[in-house]
Amino acid sequence: MEHSLTLIDKLVMQGYEHHQKGMLSEAKVLYEQVLKIQPDNFSALQLIATLYAQTNNPSQAIDFFSKAICINPNFAPCHSNHGNALKELGRYSEAIWV
Q1: How many CA atoms, within 13 angstroms, populate the side-chain half-sphere of residue 54?
Q2: What is the pTM assigned to this prediction?
């Protein structure tokens, strides 16, 4: 039996491929498309948060990491990256509790 990917899955995968190739603007557009269709898509939330963290936009990263963590609190990299973004903004006491 063949598993067919949904449009959302395809957009996330394309975004991730662009992200891995350093095509960050293209990746961001795809992640945003996913989030317009499905605002609680964990993959798109944590990937766009990572993208924001990588592009020195920790405030945006924190917002998206927070949303992703609410959806899946068991994904440790989100907590680590969230804490690093808080630390980057000098929010050390918050970073300790992430």
Answers
A1: 14
A2: 0.91
